[in-house]
Amino acid sequence: MLDKTIKPSSIVKHLDEYVIGQDEPKKIVAVAVYAHYRKIEKARKDSLELIKSNVLLIGPSGTGKTLLCETLSRVLGVPFVTADATSIAQTRYVNEEIEAILKRLVDKTDGDLARAQLGIVFIDEIDKLKAAGGQVRSVSGESVQHALLKIMEGSQVKLGTGQYIDTTSILFICGGAFVGLDDIMSRSHTYGFISTSENDDKNILDRLNARVKPTDLFEFGLIPEFTGRLPIVARFHDLTKQMLVRILIEPRNCIYNQYSEILKNEGVELAIERKVFEQIADLAIEYQAGARSLRGIFEELITPILYVVPDDPTIRRVEIESLFTEPRYVRRG
Fold first, then answer.
1. What is the pTM of this model?
2. According to the 3-state scheme, what is the secondary structure of 171-203?
3. DSSP 3-state assignment of 274?
4. Which of 152, 78, 149 minimizes the C-alpha distance to 120?
5. 176 forms bridges with which residues in the sheet?
């Protein structure tokens, strides 16, 4: 179970080492998982039924939803698997696809069913389970929502091995871009009917207005029963240029550090001007793929260097002043 020393603040502190920005979603998710595992402990101790609160992450592609969940699972030391709602919807055998997801969770624990039943499942592109163009929900999308309801709430699922896995204590985190949700919220959100006084905190009212309501998700195309299984909602925001630059150079496992270490092992120092990272960020913004495009652009920059360096022992330093100029090789002696 969850280590007694783990608290929401310590979870956020660890997430900060790998996930840049998105401060509010980090806090929301940290509190959600902390409460989830503490509730499991309480339910087991007092023989109570667990009332689970799954999580919905809303935000554009490439803003860190999957990364946050992966990092979270490492912090907690629990098994973690990802799945795409679109893949589930495209299969003729939805229940078999769901069973396969749970089987992968068991595989992550080398067959330890007890550990698997405390894992995290992240289902991405959940917003795709609605009909295109705002029309009536597709049969496949709605049927997948119904199929997911049971396991998200908690049920015994028979695996191909003949084993049964209990999903009651598995935390389900769903994610999606939800393009068009802001338009729905702008039409539906107002707490003007609430009587307010000068003693009321306007920030709290503003936060209530910014909150995604179940009715917004229903209007978007998710069925009420499904949205009811996702009471905790965290919104991710577009990454700014400065945040993209930080993603390249700040996280413990950032791509710049990775390639610096590779070249260091060859006895070569990698020196890149900050302007280069800003240029990469500009391109990523132009590509509209968030942080996901950063790696491809950086690797395109570094590939010619990694081709040359291993064959030339005289190179001691590589300097890159611009994304649009050739790198400078500084040689020994």
1. 0.85
2. EEEEEECCCCHHHHHHHHCCCCCCCCCCCCCHH
3. helix
4. 78
5. 58
Say how many residues make up the chain.
333
Q: How confident is the model at residue 133 (pLDDT cuts 50, 70, 90)?
A: very low
> What stretch of H or E contains 300?
helix 292-308
Helix ranges restricted to H, 211-273: 214-220, 224-228, 241-249, 255-264
80-131 pLDDT, tens per residue?
Answer: 999 999 888 877 788 888 999 999 999 999 999 999 999 999 999 999 988 5
Q: Model confidence over 175-195: pLDDT tens digits? A: 999 998 988 888 875 555 455
β-sheet bridge partners, residue 81? 121
What's the Cα-to-Cα distance from 189 to each of 128, 194, 229, 332, rounded to whole Å?
23, 12, 22, 65
φ, ψ (nearest 5 deg) of residue 118: -115, 15
CATH architecture of 241-331: Orthogonal Bundle (1.10)
Residue owning tokens 């009420």: 224
Domain boundaries, given as residue ranges, for the chain:
8-235, 241-331
Tell whether domain 8-235 is in CATH 1.10.1040.10. Answer: no
Token code pair at residue 173: 């985190």
How many other CB atoms are there within 10 angstroms of residue 144's CB atom? 25
Q: Are 26 and 71 in contact (CB under 8 A)?
A: no
